[in-house]
Every structure is written in structure tokens, then in C-alpha cells.
């Protein structure tokens, strides 16, 4: 926790080199905790940020301009996602002239906050006008902390109503919080899909990625925070942990190395130990998989599954850009679904098609972020073995959607059920021959017919358009999958 607090304390000095006078206002950050679970052995398990926000390092932190937020601690620590979001938005709107920067951990989380404002701005304006707190906010500590901030302000309520009542929400961030200088969110990796939406809501405010961190460890800082998202590089701080690197080799567009699908701490074998290189030995332009040994377990290297590219040096310290999270095919928020997990989920769902003599010819997936919240889309091409059997009713495909969701990991299901950060999964049925068309298109772009494999996830816009042009039916998951705080299915 001390090392994490140290890296947070370095963020404002870096930002002040590029954006002056940030100490003269506040940050409107939407920060949340998540429910805790227990391992089979009885140990408490929770996300790293929940652990940090609940710690004395955060709750009793000394005054720091970077952590001077519009949200009182009590609103951040409220376990109810609606009450937490409402109270944080209310405080942020009320202090709109003091806000110099806005953000959340992930780009998806900040967009979700703007979507929340779209739905509830009239209720928020009512509270600002009257100096009240909506009765749905029942958490006593939240009400007490917010009541110290909110006073009747009809003029501000009229202003917010006027802006939110416009037909277009383009630039809504700079209109409601006119002194905002940048948006502080992660927009690298899978989060880059949200950049156009953020640009629309902010009229092109700078998108700042300040630091690089994971559950295993906090790694480093972006020393040029005002750069474009595509140019973000992080300088690793050597005292955060012990860094080692596995060289990554590109193979027909794929990523391979000597560690395959590691998701739990384990010792490296002799061959892998020989391949590992130290921080001082990485080469410019080369890609590596990051392996860290933390202070909590020096003998246990923890592969983070992040693939990084060396982009330069700060003095002699290497700087890295984030390339991808290894093996992840789908991600909307903090969820990470790999190909094996998706395959198993689809396999479970196909049992619903057996009575109708239907088989799955081929499938792929797409993370659709045009909706708020975003959601998973699966494209299925089916073959009916016996066309004389009854047609497959929509309810069967709905059952397939729900089975897939219940087969995915607890982080996904928590996002669906508790955090509301992920929308219902959708299955789109495509015409017969669609995946042949997809292969033809890939070959026309230069793919080898001998080495072509159907991608399990698609992102390239023309391919998504091709698939959508051949959709004959679609359905959504009819309800949320099973998930209960404290009783999660445990996944390593």
C-alpha cells in the first residue's frame, strides 16, 4: 500500500509540468468499490482498487491536490452502485466550477457516468435546486457527507437543465464543467474503442493515461501525459517490483512465447528461466511479455499476461507501450474473456439446440460499445440436420444467451449484475454461407487460404459490417446471470 501511495503521489508533479494550476481546483473522478468474495480456503478476495480505497492509505490520506476530489470518501466507499454513482454525480455537478479534471479508472466507467447523467439529470437538478438528497439514497454516511456540500442553488439547477435539455449532447463535459482541462482515463488496449465517444462528449479534450498498473503491482508512469492515446508509453519504476521479460515472437500475426495461458502464479521451468531477460537488457522496438516478482512473494514470478513494446528510454530506464493483454478476445470493462473460456461457454449453450437437430457451423464474437453499457455479441451460423423438425423458437436462443453468460467468469457476471457495466449478451444468427464469405474477404486482403482460421473475435469495421449485413435474427439474454456477493464461483 505504501508503494501504491507513492506512485499516486508522483502523478500530480508529472501533470503540473504540462498543465499548470491543477492545485487550484478539484478532480471529478468516479471511483467505486466492488463486493468481496472468499476463496475456498476462506481468504478474503477483492479487486486491488477496492483494497486500496478501503485502506487507511486512501481514507486517511493527507491533503494532496491530485486526490482532492469532488466526491467525499463515503460516496466512493458506498457498496451500492446506484447510490454511489448518484451521490458522486450530484457532488460533481454542484461543484462544477471547481472541476479542473474529470475521469475514472477505465474509459468505459466514465462513459457510464455520462450515460447515468443522461437518464437522471432532472432528478439531480431537483436536488440541486432544493438542496436535498433523493430518498433513494438511503446510506446514512453518504447522506451525511453529501448534505455538507449540497445547498439550494436554483441558478445552477437552471443552468444544468438548460444544457442537459438540449437535443445534442456533443461537448456536454465542457459545457457542464467549463474549466475542465483533460479527461483522466485508461484508453489504451481494449479501452481504445471508447475514444470516439469520449471525443464526442468532450469536444476533443486531451485524453490522459497517467500510469500503468495491475493487480500484481503498480508499475510506472507516463512522463508525457498529454500525448495522443496511440503514443502512450510508460516508464517503469524499478523499486515497485522485480521485472523480467519473455521475448514475444510474432507468428502469422499471432503472439507466441514460452509461457502459454498462465493465469496463476507458478515457478518457471529451466528453459523459461533461461529465456527471461532483465529490465536493463530489453531492446528498442522488441515486444515482451512482462513477468514480475513482487515483494510479497519474491520466489514466485507472476506473469501479468501483458505484452509490451519498448519505445524508448528515460535516461537508462526503458519505456514501454501497451500492445495487448495476451489471449483476451473480449472485454467491455474490467472483464477479460479469453478464447478457451468463450469456447466452453458456447459449448454449454449448444445443448439447447440438440432437440431441434441444429448444429453450429461456425461462430465469432464482437465487443459492441455502440450501446451504453457495451455488450458481447456472438455471430452464429447454424445448420439444421433435419429440416422437418420444428423451428427453433426465440426462447431457445434466449436460453443460449443466458447459459453463455452463466458460463463466463465472476468478473463478467459481477459487471452484469452488480456494477451494470456490461449489457445483456446478444446472439445474432447469420445466413448460411456467411463464414465462407468472411474467409473470401480475408483472402482478398492477402490471408493465406492454407493458414486461414476463423477469428474468434472481430474488430475490423468492414468485417463487422459484412456480418451484420447477413443477420437474419437476433436475441438478447432475458435476465442477469447468477451472481451473489461473497459467494462467487472462484476462478484462478
Shape: globular
Number of domains in the coordinates? 3
Note poorly predicted spans.
251-266, 487-492
Helix share of residues? Answer: 25-40%
Beta percentage is 15-25%
* Radius of gyration of CA atoms, rounded to a whole number: 24 Å
Provide the residue-averaged pLDDT. 85
Given the helix and strand composition, which structural class is it?
Answer: alpha+beta
Sheet having the most strands: 8 strands, antiparallel
Question: What's the helix and strand layout?
Answer:
Layout (H helix, E strand, L loop, with lengths): L1 H15 L9 E5 L6 E2 L5 E2 L2 H7 L1 H4 L13 H4 L4 H14 L4 E8 H24 L9 H8 L6 H11 L7 H5 L5 E5 L8 H8 L4 E2 L2 E3 L4 E4 L12 E3 L5 E6 L1 E3 L2 E3 L13 H6 L1 E2 L8 E7 L7 E14 L2 E9 L2 E3 L6 E2 H11 L8 E11 L6 E10 L9 H14 L2 H8 L8 E5 L3 H11 L16 H9 L1 E6 L16
Parallel strand pairs: 1-4, 4-5, 5-6, 20-21
Antiparallel strand pairs: 2-3, 7-8, 8-9, 9-16, 10-13, 10-14, 11-12, 14-15, 15-16, 17-18, 19-20, 21-22
Helix pairs in contact: 5-6, 6-8, 12-13
Describe the structure concisely.
The protein is of the alpha+beta class. It is built from 16 helices and 22 strands. The model is unreliable at 251-266 and 487-492 (pLDDT under 50).
Describe the structure.
This protein has 492 residues and is α+β, with helices and mostly antiparallel strands. It folds into three domains: 2-230, no CATH class; 241-325, no CATH class; 329-476. The chain is built from 16 helices and 22 strands. Helix 5 (81-94) packs across helix 6 (107-130), helix 6 (107-130) crosses helix 8 and helix 12 packs antiparallel against helix 13. The longest helix has 24 residues, at 107-130. The model is unreliable at 251-266 and 487-492 (pLDDT under 50).
